[in-house]
Amino acid sequence: MNLSRTARAMLWAALAGGLAVVYLPLLVVLLNSFNADRTFGWPPSGFTVRWWEAAWNSTGVREALWTSIQAALGATAIALVLGTMVAFALQRHSFFGRDAVSLLIILPIALPGIVTGIALNNAFRAVLEPFGLGLGMFTVIVGHATFCVVTVYNNVLARLRRTGSSLEEASADLGADVFTTFRLVTFPMIRSALLAGGLLAFALSFDEIIVTTFTAGAGVKTLPLWIFENLFRPNQAPVVNVVAAALIVLSVVPIYFAQRLSGGEASNR
Amino acid sequence: MNTTANTTPPGPPPPAAPGAAPRGAAAPAPGGPRRRLAAFLHRHAPLRLSLLLSAPMLWLGVAYLGALAAMFISALWRTDTFTGDLVRELTWANFQELLTAEVYRTIALRSVGVAAAVTLIDLVVAFPMAFAMAKLASPRAQRWLVIAVLTPLWASYLVKAYAWRVLLSADGLLGWGYGLTATIITLSYLWLPYMILPIYAGLERLPNSLLEAAGDLGARGWRTFRTVVWPLTFPAVVAGSIFTFSLSLGDYITVKIVGGRSQLIGNVVYDNIGAANNLPFAAAVATVPVLIMLAYLAAVRRTGALENL
Predict the structure, then answer these.
(1) What is the DSSP-derived secondary structure letter of residue A51?
(2) Which SUPFAM superfamilies match (chain A) (predicted)?
(3) Do A40 and B211 touch (CB under 8 A)?
(4) B36, burial (CB in 10 Å: exposed 0-12, middle 13-18, buried 19+)
(5) Count of domains observed in chain B
């Protein structure tokens, strides 16, 4: 391509500058978690680890973290099942209304979160209240699963498109029934796509605040809800900052797994 | 093979010898109920399809769409001004107020403006970044750059908004203060990876030979961009814009964190649900972003952007 030297330099500069802007705020949060000053005046007056201790010993943080993990695991499990089913239906069959179904899967994530939130809130209260049930962990999981389906669906669909159905046909020709073929041929083929989609679903659910606000009852407090609640309390600021810093550090874990997944795939090809 | 199976009747059926049971054979399938079910499913594709679609459609088609529909119907109800109870009579009053009251029109326009500004900023920032990643970097560097762009995506949304609250606060590193500009900056920051990744994927699919051909035919950088790169990556750009636009349109958390006293559509919805306890009006307000997004999705369907999501 005929790119002048300046154009190349400018593109590289844009990339470097963009990445710098992406990482600067995260670095500031990390640094601030060691800031001895309660108000985070810049530059920090000194460094301390006592906020990390305070956060570690905070029961509110621990309980919120556990709640978030439970909700994310539940939502991911449901999303894995539903997303895989839809992906197979849309990729292996052609039928009337296929486009509408694929649009329906995207809808919960394409619509603003607050719309999904109040629609579900309204429906849960109308359906559950007659049974004496309130909002709680169950409703949070249902709400999260609704928009997590799309991540699994996308990953599995892409995989099915790439692999095609010839291996499954071969398996059937060799006499394996539908279930055996799924167990021995199809599932191993889509396993890493399921892992990738599940990872994304978990992260989406773990991070979700808007839908959670409307589907969680008084008793359920996920980590994002806890952070948001304490964000505006000046005396909680250091602990909130440590939780934020810890979440930034922890976000490396799924990236590591995602990379291993895609790396393994690349070497398989 | 079959002789061993006859001596152990309760065990799982042995795999049929190749050719023994041709596909789609009308003969009764041998073996236990599982085998018969498998054969039945194999022969009846429509049944397989409806089984696959059953649970997802119950969940998303009936429950989720039903919840959305119920919410929009409740937008046509009203609450009693004195008791705060729901009055289930159809009325256009909520929409009338929405359309006539100056304040809501301002907020709606402001929200669309913010969403458009965020989308535009992200596009301008993301395209050169994605281009450098896809077309200038070596394959090895590309892998690392994708990780570098993906990493912040896994960091919590709240944490990133909070980071900007710290940066922008009066005694922070930047110290620009809060307000609408702060909201636009923060939202652009939050959704930037959602713009970079689709464009990067679109550019990666764009064969280098096309760029070389354009160059061989005498086109320089800008012209190649305008006539080759842009038209071919446009669906990817639109896919990215769906994310940035939609995510900005419904947001009320970031506005609360860095927006100072500014309000967007999301805040009006939230306040009407919480403090005012006026679900019908909240639902009516919530139809605004939905209609805007549906119009947007309908408009871009033809570009093939939805396949790029």
Answers:
(1) H
(2) MetI-like
(3) no
(4) middle
(5) 2
Helix (H, G, I), strand (E, B) or coil at B304: coil
Does B172 contact chain A (CB < 8 Å)? yes
Set of chain B residues whose Cβ sits within 8 Å of the Cβ of A85 = 52-53, 55-56
| Domains identified in chain A and CATH numbers | 65-268 (1.10.3720.10)
Does A18 sit within 8 Å of B192, measured CB to CB?
yes
Q: Which two tokens stand for residue B39?
A: 């054969």
B279 touches chain A (CB under 8 A): yes
Chain B interface mutation, best of A32, A104, A177, A186, highest count of B Cβ atoms under 10 Å: A177
Is A81 near chain B, with CB under 8 Å? yes
Q: Which residues of A touch B266 (CB under 8 A)?
A: 112, 114
B77 occurs within a structural domain = no
Q: In terms of C-beta density within 10 A (0-12 exposed, 13-18 middle, 19 or more buried), how is residue B41 classed?
A: middle
Angle between helices A5-32 and B180-205 (to 10 degrees): 130
Is residue B39 domain-shared with residue B169, that is, in the same domain? no
Residues 35-74 of A with CB under 8 A from B: 39-42
Residues B233 and B117 in one domain: yes
**Residue B43 forms contact with A (CB below 8 Å):** no
Same domain membership, residue B272 and residue B130: yes
**Residue A196 in 3-state DSSP?**
helix
What is the reported pTM? 0.80
Q: Which residue has the tokens 């139809």?
A: B287
User: Considering the domain boundaries, does residue B288 fall inside one?
Assistant: yes
pLDDT tens by residue, chain A, 269 residues: 567 788 888 889 999 999 998 898 888 888 888 877 766 666 667 677 777 877 788 888 888 899 999 999 999 999 999 999 999 888 888 888 888 888 888 888 878 888 888 888 888 888 887 887 778 888 899 999 998 999 999 899 988 888 888 888 888 888 888 888 888 888 888 888 898 889 889 988 988 888 898 888 778 889 999 988 888 887 888 888 888 888 888 888 877 777 777 655 544 43
**Under an 8 A CB cutoff, do B128 and A15 touch?**
yes
Which residues of B, range 201-220, sit inside 8 Å of A by Cβ?
208, 211-212, 214-215, 219-220
List of chain B residues whose C-beta atoms are within 8 Å of the C-beta of residue A101: 53, 57, 61
Query: B159 and B222 share a domain?
Result: yes
B54: containing domain: 31-68
What torsion do the CA atoms of B35, B39, B41, B43 make, to the nearest 10 degrees? 180
Tell me which residue of A250, A235, A254, A252 sits closest to A51, measured CA to CA.
Answer: A235
Cβ–Cβ < 8 Å for A183, A203: no
> Beta-carbon neighbour count of residue B141 at 10 Å?
13
| Backbone φ, ψ for residue B21 (5° rounding) | -125, 90
Closest by alpha carbon to B272, among B262, B284, B260? Answer: B284
**What is the C-alpha end-to-end distance of chain B, expressed in Å?**
50
